[in-house]
Design a protein that fits this description.
With 254 residues, the chain is an alpha/beta fold. 28% of the residues lie in helices and 27% in strands. Helix 3 packs across helix 4. The structure holds flavin-adenine dinucleotide.
Length: 254
């Protein structure tokens, strides 16, 4: 079973501060990491490999050095990594075309795995776009994946309902964070991963000449949240009653 996992290097959103005067996020000095749900995708790929044998290749498109982050995925148990360098201004179209070109170059694959969405931009577009470009079936929002010999059976999490679907190979699957608990590599695994190959491919080596972004991010602004600072100072029973009443009016309680 050959599996390609698309894993995105993102800024650690929990470390972002918003400049109160401009409302703009301060990104300088914010550490980078692999998007959380992509680690679930890597974990799932490794579990499938442990069951069926095969190879797990992690693939990332990034404009900055992604080697250090990718090493963590190799330590988890992925066999090989591919980093595609991309231009500074890349939109969904550019990134998906580069991912698709790299997957085609990797070649012999049964499953392409990714996260349901990245933790920074959270568009959830990449999986469906990639499946379209590769011309393969897709199962999105999978919270359980059973890779059988000739087909994959997956449970899709769609809110109140769970939908079970099956597909032949090759197939693209995006996973939710509920699917598993990503393993923490041991020191031995970290040391052993140092010799695993990390391939760096340019756009040109993929036969991709020029890609023009079609979309532009116009502005990124922090959402300001203001507290109402309401204090109920009546006796406890009365205060609780008023609090419940206020929460109901706000739509927090029904
Ligand atoms: C090099 C580079 C330059 C960029 N420049 C700009 C810019 O100038 N302006 C701007 O507005 N935006 C820019 N972006 C953002 C870019 O448009 C989005 O990051 C990208 O299209 C994915 O959107 P998303 O994060 O919402 O992914 P989603 O669709 O939410 O991601 C779903 C899943 O797709 C996979 N995936 C997504 N992105 C990648 C990736 N890069 N590598 C591997 N797997 C991935 C992961 O499995 C992820 O969990 C840039 C991104 C990159 C990588």
């Amino acid at each position: 079973m050959n599996i390609v996992v698309c894993a995105k290097q993102v800024i650690d959103v929990s470390e972002i501060k918003v400049d109160p005067s401009t409302k703009k996020p301060v990104l300088q000095g914010v550490p980078l990491k692999i998007s959380d749900i992509d680690k679930n995708a890597v974990e799932e790929a490794i579990r499938i490999k442990e069951k069926h044998g095969g190879k797990v290749t992690v693939l990332t498109v990034s404009s900055s050095d992604a080697k250090e982050r990718v090493k963590e995925l190799l330590a988890m148990g992925a066999d090989e990594a591919v980093i595609v360098s991309a231009p500074e201004n890349a939109d969904y179209d550019v990134v998906s075309k580069l991912l698709a070109a790299a997957i085609k170059k990797i070649g012999d694959y049964d499953i392409v795995l990714g996260g349901e969405a990245s933790i920074d931009l959270f568009s959830g577009q990449m999986g469906p776009r990639l499946a379209g470009l590769l011309g393969i079936p897709q199962i999105t929002y999978a919270r359980k994946v059973d890779a059988e010999k000739d087909k994959v059976v997956a449970e899709r999490d769609v809110g109140d309902v769970v939908v079970t679907m099956e597909s032949p190979y090759p197939v693209l699957i995006t996973v939710t964070k509920e699917i598993n608990e990503p393993r923490l590599p041991s020191l031995m695994q970290i040391l052993a991963s140092a010799n695993k190959p990390i391939n760096e491919w340019s756009m040109e080596s993929l036969g991709v000449k020029e890609l023009t972004p079609k979309m532009e991010t116009v502005e990124v602004k922090g959402v300001s949240m203001e507290r109402k600072n309401i204090v109920y100072q009546d006796d406890v029973d009365e205060a609780v009653e008023k609090l419940v009443d206020s929460l109901a009016k706000e739509g927090v309680l029904r």
